[in-house]
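User: What would this chain look like folded?
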Amino acid sequence: MLPQRDTPRGGWTFYGFGYDSAGEDYKVIVGALYERYIHSVKTGSWRKLEGLDEPVHFQIQGNIGCLFNGALHWLEFKQEEGTYSVEIFSFDLAEEEFQAVLPLPTRFPKTYRSWYSDGLGIGMGTSRTGLFVYHYDHTNAFTIWTKEDEGGWSELYNHSREWCGFDLLGFQEGGVISP
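Assistant: Here's the prediction, encoded as structure tokens.
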């Protein structure tokens, strides 16, 4: 059980859990708009993190970090001047630093007028081979991209059909999708 700590300042909370193989330590990250904390299982203590200068915003996407290549990744949603934008930011567990934004796939929609009027569903997760992001919209187009190691994004799946809104949990063996 983790030692108690106050909820970080700033509303929407994000969190993640992962193994730092360089330091041989399990780490937990908890953050909000203005404060972020890390817990080391090895030391049994929490400490405040620095290094993410601007507030972090989550409007719709789940707040759980996805572990990929030794870093936790989150989808970040921002609202500016009537539109929403989406980016991926990450936290390197070994260096204990927030990283530059990871580019999304070229065809992944990056701005929206409204989550609701655009009929939007997007998310991110990890599979055995890497990170994946998905998108579906009012046209009933559903697309999944995967990223392995340092390479670019590859479109894994693209299909049009009636979707009733769900979050993709993972893949089955052989690349067959399990909604």
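The chain has a mean pLDDT of 76. If you want, I can go into more detail on any region.
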